[in-house]
């Protein structure tokens, strides 16, 4: 199984279009130790020729242009694509709007929890993906689903499971008391298994906390790509960027007693990689103290173009 990080940044990317904050300004100026990053998406393939996108970011066109494996085959039909399926982990703008660039009648399959499919169904702009060509498939949570798309068995089995989180920003209702109207399935994690080899990894780009059921699920895993949005819960406030904490946004922090380094310390996950990294996160600077903390804890910071084979 081949896994490629197409975009390692959170919503907005790095640098973000309207941000002249501490880190965005540095990467724009070409300061050493900073890499630009596209928005949150992975690609995975069991056979090296048919691919599944895990989330479809607004940067998808650039991601395809920078990833030869995702480009049309030179032989065969004039219009073709190795992208056979798209799996969505929530309805965030950074995870669903790339679908709009996959129009033009190419057959593929979308897989998501019912709450996320309901959002696509409620927004007529997604009808640009003709339903007779692009199927919409509901994950039954906690059950294995074998992926297929474009008439091809993709050789991958996905188990989708609800994780602590929040409904997409543009769907928030009410207040923090009811977690803004969030329900199970608004944010899911994925366990992706190669049907032939049995090897598997976890992809959880948005999660508010590692609660006991989630800890049990990931214990002993070979590989996880995890929500690395923020290093410290209040860094957006202290950097003067936005009046919101990570907790308010449904994202666990990397550091601190409630953070992901601490939560995974005893879980024996062999390889741990941060993705969905926000433009406020000091781990974006390879020379930062925060980066030393992450390195010392045995975590990796995902980057665009990163490839992992399992
Ligand atoms: C998030 O991950 O919290 C969202 O992508 C935020 C947003 O929609 O800007
Ligand atoms: Mn996001």
From TrEMBL:
Entries under InterPro entries matching the protein: Metallo-B-lactamas (IPR001279), PQQ_synth_PqqB (IPR011842), RibonucZ/Hydroxyglut_hydro (IPR036866)
Pathway entry: Cofactor biosynthesis; pyrroloquinoline quinone biosynthesis
PANTHER family in the record: COENZYME PQQ SYNTHESIS PROTEIN B (PTHR42663:SF7), HYDROLASE C777.06C-RELATED-RELATED (PTHR42663)
Gene3D superfamilies reported in the protein's UniProt record: Ribonuclease Z/Hydroxyacylglutathione hydrolase-like (3.60.15.10)
GO biological process: pyrroloquinoline quinone biosynthetic process
Coiled coil: none
Name of the protein in its database record: Coenzyme PQQ synthesis protein B
Protein role: May be involved in the transport of PQQ or its precursor to the periplasm.
Keywords: PQQ biosynthesis, Transport
Any single Pfam family the record assigns to this protein: Lactamase_B_2
Cross-referenced SUPFAM superfamilies: Metallo-hydrolase/oxidoreductase
Similarity comment: family membership: Belongs to the PqqB family.
Domain of life, per lineage: Bacteria
Organism whose genome encodes this protein: Hyphomicrobium facile
Ranges for domain Metallo-beta-lactamase: 50-277
């Amino acid at each position: 199984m081949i896994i490629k990080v197409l975009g390692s940044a959170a919503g907005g990317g790095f640098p973000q279009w309207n941000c002249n904050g501490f880190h965005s300004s540095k990467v724009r100026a070409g300061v050493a130790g900073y890499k630009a990053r596209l928005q949150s998406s992975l690609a995975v393939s069991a056979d090296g020729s048919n691919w599944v996108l895990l989330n479809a970011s607004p940067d998808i066109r650039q991601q395809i242009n920078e990833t030869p494996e995702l480009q049309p085959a030179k032989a065969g039909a004039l219009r073709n694509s190795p992208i056979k399926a798209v799996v969505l982990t929530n309805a965030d703008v950074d995870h669903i709007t790339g679908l709009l660039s996959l129009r033009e009648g190419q057959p593929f399959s979308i897989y998501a929890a019912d709450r996320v499919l309901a959002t696509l169904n409620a927004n007529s702009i997604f009808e640009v993906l003709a339903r007779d060509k692009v199927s919409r498939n509901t994950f039954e949570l906690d059950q294995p689903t074998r992926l297929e798309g474009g008439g091809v068995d993709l050789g991958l089995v996905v188990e989708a499971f609800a994780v602590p989180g929040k409904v997409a920003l543009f769907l928030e209702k009410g207040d923090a008391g009811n977690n803004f109207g969030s329900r199970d399935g608004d944010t899911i994690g994925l366990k992706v298994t190669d049907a032939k080899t049995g090897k598997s990894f976890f992809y959880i780009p948005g999660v508010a906390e590692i609660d006991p059921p989630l800890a049990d699920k990931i214990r002993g895993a070979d590989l996880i790509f995890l929500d690395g949005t923020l290093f410290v819960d209040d860094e957006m406030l202290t950097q003067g960027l936005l009046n919101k904490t990570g907790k308010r946004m449904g994202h666990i922090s990397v550091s601190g007693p409630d953070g992901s380094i601490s939560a995974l310390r005893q879980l024996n996950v062999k390889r741990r990689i941060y993705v969905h990294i926000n433009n406020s996160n000091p781990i974006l600077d390879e020379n930062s103290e925060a980066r030393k903390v992450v390195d010392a804890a045995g975590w990796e910071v995902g980057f665009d173009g990163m490839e992992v084979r399992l």
